[in-house]
Amino acid sequence: MGEATPLLELRGVSKRFGAVEALTKVDFTARLGEVMALVGDNGAGKSTLIKGIAGIHTYNEGQIFFDAKPVTINSPRDSAALGIEVVYQDLALADNLDVVANMFLGHERTQAMGMLDEDSMERTCIETLQSLSVTTLRSVRQEISGLSGGQRQAVAVAKAVMRNSRLVILDEPTAALGVAQTRQVLDLVRRLADKGLAVVLISHNLHDIFEVADRITVLRLGQNVHEFMAQQTNPQEVVHAITAGKMLHVPGMAEVEIQ
Amino acid sequence: MADQSQAVPVVPARAGIGALLRSMLRSQAAMTTATLLVLMAFFTVLFPSKFLTVFNIQNLLIDYSGIVLLGVGLTFVMTSECFDLSIGATLVLASVLGVEAMVLVGGEGWSTVLVGLAATLLTGAAVGVFNGFLVVNLRIPSIIVTLGSLNVAQGLAYVLTGGQDMHEIPNLMVDSIGLGRVLGIPAPVLVSGIAVIVGAFVLSQTRFGRHTCALGSNKEAARRAGIDVNRLSIQLYVLSGMCAGLAGFMSLARFGTTTLSGHSTDFITALLGVVLGGTSLFGGVGTVLGTAVGVFIPGVLSNGLILMSVFPYWQLVIVGLVLCAVVYADLVKRRQRDD
Ligand SMILES: Nc1ncnc2c1ncn2[C@@H]1O[C@H](COP(=O)(O)OP(=O)(O)OP(=O)(O)O)[C@@H](O)[C@H]1O
Ligand SMILES: [Mg+2]
Questions:
Q1: Is A54 among the domain residues?
Q2: Is residue A171 part of a domain?
Q3: Site from B20, B197, B213, B217 to mutate, A interface, most A CB atoms within 10 angstroms
């Protein structure tokens, strides 16, 4: 851990949607081998922040550093090329396709005559699931429509990990899950970091966060409030930051204190 | 990296809702095939000397070869959760422009025929680009776009011909393609057969087919996977248009004339074949082989009705009713899955 150079660093990023300023000069970091939790109330700007990293939209201002080098991310392809993978709140898996097809969607392996190389894809798929100790899937040839929420989450995470990604971002991966499935997904999240990846975890559940996170970044109304070290803080402090934290900038106003 | 000794149960198990659905789909294809066989058995018993004859079956295959071509293209478009109502009219416009092009270059030889083929295919592709552009760039629902282009294409065909069918088709084209045979197989049947085999391969075994299923299953998932969904949609409309263009060319070769008003029911027949074959109206699932079987249910039905001396227009009534029934069955299946 410690203060190694972050794999990803955002400096002063802002994002406006018309008159709405969803992010105002936000700083954010993610380090290899660590889970960075991103928390904040509904509408705080968490999803907006990660969409900028994922290339879904571009920030209006600010800089992105990856491996300490300035980069531009204008499309999901740019983001994927850097080794960034995002598992969205809504997962977006293709229900009618099986696990293998979903894991390789957009990156299918082919053989002679452009034929899909199903065997090779199936093997890699199984290997990836094994390396993440995902044991809840009955078959990699099951269609997604037949999987439980936790199984889908595992597939989405395995998919993100499979392509040699270095930064995996998870937007509320446990929101729709029961106790046992949440447990499995959290274990999986921790394993990603222990494998040396940088992980960003968005969640409203502080209990989950304190279980797996190394650091916690708090956003409020689109602004930074604080970055905590998980071991040096407690849930009460974080809740206070989320609901009543002092913001650094208030757009269009004098510096107002919201305590 | 993986600990291979670890027991991970990843054998292709045949359980769960997904597998159940798949088996239901399979049973739909099985049911379609069974229905077809029952229909054929029925008419065979009824007309032992007329129905199951080489002559009659061959005619049936030739008569529906054009619908099969339309069905192949439609299967792709519908698997991507879009519609193409324009295929019948595209067929007509393509055949008109095919003749116009052949008249323009003149001659009676193979080069003239090739020009005709190129013109029909290009017409189909052009209608496809038009459809795709409106659906993708202007985001007009595909059912409306293709309803519009149906009328544009049919209207243009009438405008270009003044409503009179054109007959200026090289004899060579009629003799060698329309009436021709290769190894005893009628050329129109051969062309459609090849289209089915290629289409089935592409849809089920290639990246293009996989992406088409993904687009129809979850467009957002496809987009996030880096698939250029707009380009893919346009490609699918071009494919469907070109299948219609090829059907237009084959129609010229068979009849030796443009058949301006002879294709108004082609779309509904092809659609019925597609959904009977097991392609979902709601996208994500499609089978070209199923379509090829499905198309012959209305085919055998109309053939049998003619043998029974039933007024053939009853076929339309039946096709319409069966279509509603099949789509209802598909809906029920979806609802069961989503609950
Ligand atoms: N595409 C958009 N157009 C306009 N406003 C948007 C858009 N996306 C987000 N916003 C606004 O930006 C703000 C931040 O939204 P965002 O979705 O990032 O919040 P969040 O922290 O992810 O919330 P939640 O916890 O509910 O997921 C909100 O006020 C939201 O209404
Ligand atoms: Mg959000």
A1: yes
A2: yes
A3: B217
Interatomic CA distance for residues B127 and A208, integer angstroms = 54
- Give this prediction's pTM: 0.84
E strands, B30-107, in order: none
The rounded Cα B259 to chain-centroid distance in angstroms is: 19
Ligand 2 centre distance from Cα of residue A46 (Å): 6
Domains parsed from chain B with CATH numbers: 50-338 (1.10.3470)
Condensed to tens digits (0 to 9), the pLDDT of residues B279-294 reads 988 899 999 999 999 9
The CATH number of residue A71's host domain is 3.40.50.300
ipTM of the complex: 0.82
- Asked whether residue A31 is domain-assigned, the answer is yes
A12 found inside a domain? yes
| Test site for ligand 1: of A28, A47, A59, A206, most ligand atoms within 8 A of the Cβ | A47
Q: How many CB pairs under 8 A join A and B?
A: 126
Burial A190-212 (b: 16+ CB within 10 A, else e): bbbbeeebbbbbbbeebebbbbb
Tally of domains within chain A:
1
| CA dist., res. A154 & res. A149, Å (int) | 9
Q: What does the DSSP 8-state code read for residue B179?
A: S
